[in-house]
User: What shape does this take?
Amino acid sequence: MAAGTQTNLDLGNCFRITGSSTSDNDVLIQTGDVSRYDSFTLLSTGGAMDVFVSLDGTNYATAALSLQDFGATTNDPVLVTVAGRLYQFRGKFAKIRVLQNGATAVTAATLNCWKQMG
Assistant: This one.
């Protein structure tokens, strides 16, 4: 897997990672330890993405994570994103890896990580 470009931004209670890529299965976002967060949102302005998670920080799930599509009229989970839509997922993960899905370049992908209050 090739790597795309990535920028990290620490916003205090929220951590933002942005990335882009050009080829299928490029890693466009690779987090470090995100175990202190439990809520995540993801969107891109172009291309499709898959999300893979690691519980131990070394091994990743072999199937993409189901995401809630906030742009859909139903609450059906999706495995592959569509450009321009906002997706959310929750859980306690050690690391998160976002890959480009398909030949269309992923542009302006953003992953926000934060901890729910209460």
